Structure formats: structure tokens, C-alpha cells
Amino acid sequence: MAILFDSTNRLFTLQTDHNMYQMKADRYGVLLHTWFGMKGSAFDYSYRIAYADRGFSGNPYDAGDDRTYSLDALPQEFPAYGSGDYRSSALKVRYPDGTSACDLRYLKHEIRAGKYSLPGLPALYDEAQNSDTLIITLEDIRRMFYVHLYYGVMEDLDIITRAVCVENHSNEDIYLENIQSVCVDYLYGDFDLHTFYGRHVKERNCQRTPVRHGIQSVGSTRGTSSHQYNPFLILSNHDTTEDNGSCYGFSFLYSGDFIGSAELDQYDQTRFLLGIHPDNFCYCVKPQERFYSPEAAMAYSDHGLGKLSRIFHRAYRNHLCRGKWTTTRRPVLLNDWEGVYFDFDGDKLIQMAKDASELGIELFVMDDGWFGKRDLDVSGLGDWVVNEKKLGCTLKEISDQIHALGLQFGIWFEPEGINEDSDLYREHPEWAMQIPGKLPTRSRQQLLLDFSREDVRDYIFTHICQVLDSARIEYLKWDLNRSLSDLYSAVLPRERQGEVMHRYVLGLYDMLEKLINRYPDMLIEGCSGGGGRFDAGMLYYTPQIWCSDDTDAIERLSIQYGTSFGYPVSTMGSHVSHCPNEQTRRIAPLNTRATVAMSGTFGYELDVNKMSEEEKEIVKTQIQEFKEYYDLIQYGDYYRLTNPDAVEAYHGWEFAAPDGSEALLCIVALQIHPNGPGRWMRLKGLKKDSIYTVDGKEYAGDVLMNGGLLLPTATEEYESFRIHIVENH
Ligand code: GLA
Questions:
Q1: Domain check: are 120 and 80 in the same one?
Q2: CB distance 325 to 543 below 8 Å
Q3: At residue 189, does pLDDT exceed 90?
Q4: Of 100, 127, 156, 308, whose CB neighbour count within 10 A is largest?
Q5: Which Gene Ontology terms cover its molecular function (predicted)?
Q6: How many folded domains does the chain comprise?
Q7: Ligand 1 atom at minimal distance to the Cα of residue 549
Q8: Residue 118: pLDDT above 80?
Q9: Ligand 1 pocket, 203 CB below 6 A?
Q10: CA distances from 50 to 23, 73, 191, 323, 677 (A)
Q11: What integer best gives the mean pLDDT of the chain?
Q12: What is the rounded average pLDDT of the residues 698-706?
């Protein structure tokens, strides 16, 4: 059992293969956090806490005249607002009398075999049952509600998950104004905080800053996890590198508003919090009801950021993504968007599919523009009726012809969106999210449907199913092209309007779950103007997400690099597009565009008809090559070798078989210089005593990892190389 309970000391020790997490209910029943880090003996780590009389940091009443006991200074597992701890808190409740001061004490606990799941929310799962669950129940000192702290200990994954449930056992309503899923109190404070920031077409850039006194936070109040900040954060030592040093990763399995913060307090202790952003959140919990916070996953690495990422990659590939597409090879696709945008008819699509089939592409995706009145992005959203006039045929006819070419068929939806110029809006303007008496904020000239409403979701679901049932469709792209605003739901009373953002996300999950249940074999790709909702919550429903609307291979190096810190390659939608690139006008070699797109869920997004015969031949070999390397890329261990944003001439990354028997080294030359120096790249993840062959030459594994491989000289800007390294037998 990975969860140890020492009843004498009321000490909980959670152990994974390499890590350990510890809490203790102290003499007042306060749940203290005592350890998170390397695995060791299940010793009581609370000996490290220094008690002292702390001026202006008060003492709880039950501590009597003990002036050395102050919640303001103690490392706590789940600090509540108003307890005398003036740091950021994990919980703020408004009681029926309008006050908010709260204090929580240990009541009981339960240890269960297996990993818990959460009603209506994404959660890591473990079918092999190598996980256990601990539920610690705290009670508020006024005896109105319980706080159940859930811990999933995923032993061989080195992951600990958390979620919080508040249960109202009084006769009156209480309001949750803030509930964080994670709080980790470190007794010391000398960390860097790593966050991933960006914007539309430039997501997940890395930022690393020392944690200073005060609160540093990133988050989203956009109703989606957002392009701007990602709900994956890292705390590390200042000297932690890719391969060395300590670091902690925190990932929120949620697709709406979030906040992640680090606070260095007056005693140089660090508090880390991650949960729903409180700005758009106030949730009424009725008597006898329970509220569940979304899950967060935490991991520790004593071998740098690379190992930390690989812990998340493994867990998300196999224990978050679900269903057939976890283990089944995903098809190489052609998406028509950058090829034709809105300008197509059925014949043009069939011709594109025909050209694609000759190259070895396996799935043809019809993107935006096939429904309602939709020849531009200003109308038609909400009208999920096939525009047969535009297509010149039925959807079934298109799908049948595409299947006759040996391809699968996929289709784009934006289920949450609505244009004012749509039949749906004309019929049901009250279904769009907008506040009576206030003109709404438009974005891409569209509004959003109130997905917190079941009737609205049911309507959209029915219409989407009608389309999906009318033809053979194996893939669905679920897009969302704006942030939420004007939060209001016509069916909720005044005092519950603060629930709309969260209910919207629950509604989204509910509909995705229904879709998966009805079409278990369909591959669903998430998207929000590229990577605006690239988070672990969505991955529970959509095993791949379009990583960015920026398809420029060189821009993609940074985007995919930043994304790789928290998410596996198998989740990153990535396509080869035309050059000059649509977003940047940059020209990068076709080979390089493929090198980058292969390091994701590989596909093309262009009009094959516009390619030369020579290019088509190259594409054929690229697809074959991708299929050969599929397992290595999609299921192998991913190593970042350089940072594309650092001034390095060559950028490299690598996929290594988990057993070290082969590797694929990917290199892109970011700068070329005539008469330049030699360049080497040190490989990782090989067996040091084995002999490997690279391009007909033999090397020992330790030589490749220590001395590195001498790289070919690039003779063209952005030239790339894919180098296969194979162990001799
Ligand atoms: C978003 C997506 C694109 C494409 C367009 C269609 O921007 O990210 O891939 O589907 O919408 O309107």
C-alpha cells in the first residue's frame, strides 16, 4: 500500500516509486504539510518546523496561551481564509451570516484501493489498480461543512493527484468564493517559478523567474484555460536544468478559469496554490450537497525538468487520454483549412482527397464552412445543417466518395459558438450568453451559447448527432474561437450567477462525455483557435489538441518546446502547411516542416494540387518515414536537447525507445554560417555500454551521450535532419 498511516502521530505518508508526500494532523487537529520530495523513510518530518512567538501572527483560541503556535507561520495542507493565516488561502466560504472566517480541523480519514474518480470532471485513471486513494476529512470549526481532501497516489507513475470536495451538512446555504485544488507549503523559499505564457498564434512560451516576497501568479479569467497562460506550472531550484536538480510540476485538469500562484512569506516559506480563479466564481452549496473541485496532478523530479516532463507524458498518454486512441495508431490527416479556407464545393474537396490519397494520407478533414450560411466567419455558427447547395451533394455522398478513395473522413464543429446572423440566434437569442440590458462583447463577430444550460446543450448535441449519423465520420474537430464574456445564464437565480463559468465548463465536459459514449471509436481533436484550450482537462475527452494556429515550422519549434514541458507529443496537433507560410510568410524547407510536424500528431494542411510533382514524392516518403518511426515518436521518451529560443545555431530534440534500443534525433539549423565551426549534439536515454549504428558508423552509447554526435553541416537556412540511432544486435 502506497499510503501509510501512523495513528500515534496521526501522520499520513504517501509514497510513489521515487517520491514521498507527507501530512500530519497535529495536537489541535490542524493538518500540517510536512514533506513533498524524494522518497525516504516514513519518518515524521514535522521535526523540521520551528515554533516561535511570532509578532502580529495570532494564535488560534484552542492553543490557549501558547504564543508559539501560529497558523500564519505553519506549513498547512489546506489553509482556510480567516483562520489567522494571512497568506493566500485555499478556501474561502461565505457563511449564512455573511461572514467568512473559517478554520478547519481533522475529523477522520479513509484509505481505499484504486484511484478515485470525480463526478462530471476529468480525472486520471488507473485500470491496473497500481494506485490508492486517501480521503482526509476536515470539519470547519463552526460545524457546518466538511472538506474532503482527495489524494490519488499513482505509485509507478510517480504522480499524486488531488481534488477537494466540500459537503454542506448544515440546514443553510453556504457559498464557496474560492476553492483551490492544490496547496503546497514549503518550509523554505528559494525557488524559480516556471510559467507558460503566450497569445493567439504564439502559445506556451517559457518564463522562469525567481519567487520573490509577495504573490506571483498567472491565470485565466477567459472561461477557457487560454492562449495567454497555461494551467501547468513548475517550481524548481535556481540551478535546476534539464537533467539535474529538483523541480515540482503542477497540472490542473480543468479547461476554464484558473489561477496558479507562488507566495514567498515573511519567514521565507513558499506557498504554492493551483485551482479555479476566484474572480468569476461563487458557488452555492445547498444543505446536504457536495461540490467537487477539479483535479490537479503533481509530480516531483530530482533529475531536472526533462524527467519531470517525462513523468507527465507517461501519465497523460496512458492514464488521462482514454479509449481506443490511447493505443491505436492515429491516421495521418489532411485538413483542408489552410488549403481552401471557406472557398470550396464538394468536387474540390473530393479532388483534394484524391490527391491526398495518392500520397499515403489516411484521413481527410473538412474544416469550417460546410454548414448553414458560412462562407465567411461572420455567420452561420449554430446552424449545424449541411449546406448541400454549397457542397453540391449530400454529406453522405462526399463521405462515401472519400471512403472509396481509401480515406477516412473527418469534420469540423464549433458547438459552443453562435453568430447573430444564424437561424439559431434568430430563433433563440436568449440561448446566447449575454446580460440583459448590456450589449455583449463580440469576438470574431460571434457570441457563445450558454453551455451551462442542459436544454441548450441537448439541442446542439441532437443536431450534431444528426450530422454525424448522416454519413460515415471517423474524426471530429471541436473548436472554440473566442473567450467567454458577459457571463450570465437566464435559468439561474441572481445569487447563483457566480456559478456560470464553472457550470459552462461542466456543461462542456458533459457534452463531450456524451459524444464519446455515443461514438467511442471517433477520434476527437480539441482546438480553440489553435492552443487556447490546451489543457489536461480537455485531454480526458480529446486525446489530441490543435497546438496552435501558427503553422510556421520555425515558430512551432518554440510553441511545441513550451508545450512539451507539461504535455506529450502524442497530444500536439501539428501539420505541414504551404510556404511562404500563411502566418509569417517565412519559407522553410518541406523537409523541415515535416520534421517539426512529425513531432506531434502528424498531418498536412494545404492544397496538394498546388504542390509540384517533386514535392509530392517527398511527401510520400515523409509519410512512410513517419509510419516507421510512429512508435518511437508517439510512445518513446522525449528529450529536449536545446532551447530554440536560446541563441544556438542548431536546435535539437530526441525520441528514445524506453529500453534505449533506438532513438531518433531531430535537428533544425536556426542559423547557417559559411566556414562555420563543427556542431555536436549529446544524445540521451541510450544504454551506455551498447554499440549503436548511426549512418553506417558505430559508436558506444556512452560516447554518443558524452562526446555527442558530430552533426551534418547545414547548407540551407532552416535545413533539418532526422537521424536514426539503432542499437546493434
Ligand atoms: C480556428 C482553428 C483553425 C480553423 C478555423 C476555422 O481558428 O484553430 O484551425 O479550424 O478556426 O474557422
A1: yes
A2: yes
A3: no
A4: 308
A5: alpha-galactosidase activity
A6: 3
A7: 8
A8: yes
A9: no
A10: 16, 9, 20, 49, 55
A11: 97
A12: 98
Q: Are residues 315 and 339 in the same domain?
A: no
E strand map for 81-190: 91-94, 104-113, 131-140, 145-154, 159-168, 174-186
Q: Is 451 within a domain?
A: yes
Residue 24 phi/psi, 5-degree rounding, is -145, 130
Ligand 1 within 6 A of 383 CB? no
Give catalytic residues, as residue numbers: 479, 549
DSSP H stretches of helix in 582-696: 590-598, 613-635
Question: 522 is in which domain, residue-wise?
Answer: 332-546
CA of 604 to the centre of ligand 1 (A): 14
| pLDDT tens column, 27-76 | 999 999 999 999 999 999 999 999 999 999 999 999 999 999 999 999 99
368 CA to centre of ligand 1 in angstroms = 7
Distance CA 215, CA 229 (A): 16
Pocket test for ligand 1, best of 201, 335, 337 (most atoms within 8 A of CB): 337
- Going from the Cα of 689 to the center of ligand 1, the distance in angstroms, rounded, reads 48
Rounded distance from Cα 321 to ligand 1 centre (Å) = 23
- Give the model's pLDDT for residue 9: 96
Q: Find out whether the beta carbon of 368 lies less than 6 Å from any atom of ligand 1.
A: yes
Which of 502, 530, 546 terminates a domain? The answer is 546
3-state SS class at 132: strand
Q: Out of 546, 581, 603, pick the residue that ends a domain.
A: 546
The alpha carbon of residue 22 and the mean position of all alpha carbons in its chain are separated, in whole angstroms, by: 26
Strands 637-640, 270-275: pairing is unpaired
Let me know whether 314 and 380 are in one domain. Answer: no
Digit-coded pLDDT (tens) for 567-610: 999 999 999 999 999 999 999 999 999 999 999 999 999 999 99
Q: Is the CB of 337 under 6 A from ligand 1?
A: yes
Give the DSSP H/E element, type plus range, for residue 206.
strand 202-210
| Nearest atom, ligand 1, residue 605 CA | 9
Residue pLDDT, tens place only, 339-364: 999 999 999 999 999 999 999 999 99
Residue nearest (by alpha carbon) to ligand 1 atom 11: 529
Burial grade of 630 (CB within 10 A; 0-12, 13-18, 19 or more): middle
Nearest to 515 by CA among 617, 644, 394, 415: 415
Phi and psi (nearest 5°) for 533? -140, 50
| Residues ≥6 apart with Cβ < 8 Å to 193 | 208, 209, 210, 211, 216, 233, 234, 235, 262
pLDDT at 647 over 80: no
Is any ligand 1 atom within 6 A of the Cβ of residue 154? no
Q: Is 546 in the pocket of ligand 1 (CB under 6 A)?
A: yes
295 and 367 in a single domain? The answer is: no
Domain CATH number, residue 183? 2.70.98.60
Report which protein residue has its CA nearest ligand 1's atom 8: 529
Q: Kindly give the distance from the C-alpha atom of residue 516 to the centroid of ligand 1, in angstroms, as a whole number.
A: 22
CATH number, residue 479: 3.20.20.70
